[in-house]
Structure formats: structure tokens, C-alpha cells
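#lab-general

N.A. 3:47 PM
ok so I finally got the sequence cleaned up, no stray characters, all 316 residues accounted for. can someone with queue access submit it? mine expired

B.Y. 3:52 PM
send it over

N.A. 3:53 PM
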Amino acid sequence: MVCMLSRSALYCIAVNTMRYFVWRARMWNGLNFSWHGSPIALIGLIILCLLYGSGIWQARKRNAQDMPLKKRRIAAFSAAIILMAVVFLTPIDTIARTQLFSMHMAQAVTLTTVCAPLLLFACPAWLLKPLLDQRFVRPIARALTQPVAASLLFNLSFLTWHAPVLFHFALVHGTVYHLELLTFLLTSLLNWWPLIGPVREFHKMTYPMQMLYAFLDGQPVDIFAFLLVFSGVVIYPYYAVPPALGISAFADQAVGGALLLIPGLVDLVVMSPLFFRWLGQIEERAKIEDQRRQELAEQEEEEETTGNYFLPQADR
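B.Y. 4:20 PM
back already:
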């Protein structure tokens, strides 16, 4: 009987010890690192990979020589998929919905500033043209990728989802929260298109107009970010910030606002090469104009010389 009790006690101690270490592994400084299943997000990533692979295979099957696929495009697509998996399927998502607003902003910035341009870069023009050339798709795509429409869709969707009531509803319902993040990704694809869209005929802005677009497009989100940092008011009091972190709810919100300023810095980085390309374009046009003037001057000089040659000696 004593032996049986001792075995039972040892078993209970072992089980409780394992549970304790599992709990400690899931909790660090009060943060919940438990993994959760998200079948919708996982299925969406798998479908995206299948569409990308099948699209490349179908296009190259028709004419592989005229449709080269560089390794850096595949690397960009792989990086985007990995980052999206981290955003949607890891404990980061749990922390972003329950404990830290700043982690939510890290998700949003990753999707809109990193994943979206990577996905556009991963798709060559020949991969998207069969879809965009469809009779019903083409006018819709042309309308949605217009600079004003693309900017309005992204900024309105981003700010609407962050209305306190709607944002709280999304935090409580995981599926709605993932729909919110998916909306950020899709509208940011449209938002990046006027600058780096692979199909050139859908973005024909000059370099000065592209710089103006990059500057004005980020203003609404930048204003929202400054509001988060400097308002002094906790706009989203729905998070249980762990006391072990030693930060207040407003400090967490301010960190999220600071992260949201990163896209504005990216806009400045994007504007720099556009500015130098514009200068190069001006210089190239000046060279062409100078060359044309020089050719005209040489032609006039040659005509004058030829005319003088045929004049009588007395008229020279």
C-alpha cells in the first residue's frame, strides 16, 4: 500500500512538474507564447503558394524562352510567405490580440511594408498579364490601381479597422482579426502598385508624380501614428499588458505608434531613387537635345559650305 501510494505520489509530482515547465515555456515575462491553430490562415497561405506555382508552370509551359523567372523573385515570394506565416500562425498573433498593441502594429507594418512589396516583386509582368487581360478583370484592376483610388482604399481601410469599437470586436473574434490583417495586405498591394506594379501599363506616372504620391499617401497613417504617440490617452484599453514587462498601457500604445512611423521612413527611402532617376532622365533629355542641336548646326554649316562651293568666284 505504501509502495502504491509512493508511486502515485511520484507520478503526480512528475505530471505537475511537466505542466509547470510547459507553462513556464509558454509564459516569459508574462507573455503568452502558446501556439494556436488557424486553419483559415494556413489554408490561405497554401492556396497562395499553389496559385503562384501553377501560374508560373502554365505560363512557362506556353513559352518558356520568353518568360525567364529569376531566382531572386522566387526568394522574394518565399520570404513573403515565411513572414506571413510568422504573422498569422505563431504566438505573435496571440500576443497581438490579447496583451500588446505594439505587437499588433508590428504585424500590420510587416504585412504592409515588407510582405506586400515582396509579393509584387515576386510576380513578373508575364505572370499577371493573363489575369489582367481578362475582359471583366481589366477595367476593375485599372480602376483600383489608380493612385487616388489605391491610396484612399488603403488609408480608409486601415483607419476604419482601428476605430475602437470595430478593433475591439476584431480582437475578441480571431477570424475577424485575421480578416482585418488580410485587408491590410490586399489594400497595401494596391497601394504599392502605382510605384512598383509589375505591369507597366497600369502605372504610367512620371517620377515627380510618383514622389508626390509617395509623400502624400502616408500622411493619414502618419497622423494616426503621432496621435498614438503623443495623445497621452490610452485609445485601446483592451489589452492585458503583463506587469512583469514594466510598461504601462500607454507606453505600449506609444511603441505601436512609433512602429507605425516606419512606413513613412520607407516612403522617404523610396523617394530618393525616384528623385535621382528623375535627375538622370532630365540629364539624358538635355544630352539628346544638345546632340540634336549640334547635328542641326553641323547640317546648316555643311549646307552653307556646299552653297558657297557652287557660287561664282565673284559672288564669294
